[in-house]
Amino acid sequence: MVAVALLLLAAVLVVVIALLFVGWAVGRTNDMPDQIVVDAHEAIEFCASALPADVTAVLSYEELRRILRLHLEWIQAFHFAPETSSRGDAVDGPVVFEEFDAVDYILERADVNRFEVEREHVQAVVEAHSSYLQVVGAIHLDDPVKVEQDLAELPLLDAPELEGGGDAELE
Question: 24 pLDDT exceeds 60?
Fold first, then answer.
């Protein structure tokens, strides 16, 4: 009789511990920001239609896809926000990065992979891809003029450069 009572107590204890752990894990995932899924085909189509004619006349879909992958690689490699920094401090808030640092990275990686592409073409693709990522909610352009405008009214490319650059945040 005592053995049955101990087994029952042990089973209840295991269930309680499991429920506490599950509750803790659910609480952590509720605190996480929404995850954005980027559809590669949609991104390619969006960027291809947003690029100026002189760029689309030169770049193939395969080259566009490779530049988009390198842009995503740059975002992931240099701007992923872990729970703690390298010093062990907690990382709060979004990760801020200069949008056009990506161009130099893409050109360097393209050179390593023997993929020849012009700087102006990469710049246009990065601008189009950044617009796509903003539309799907993956980044937020921290430019007060652009933030106040409706996305539908924003030109995708060839926008005049505003003072202060174009800092973006990865959410």
Answer: yes
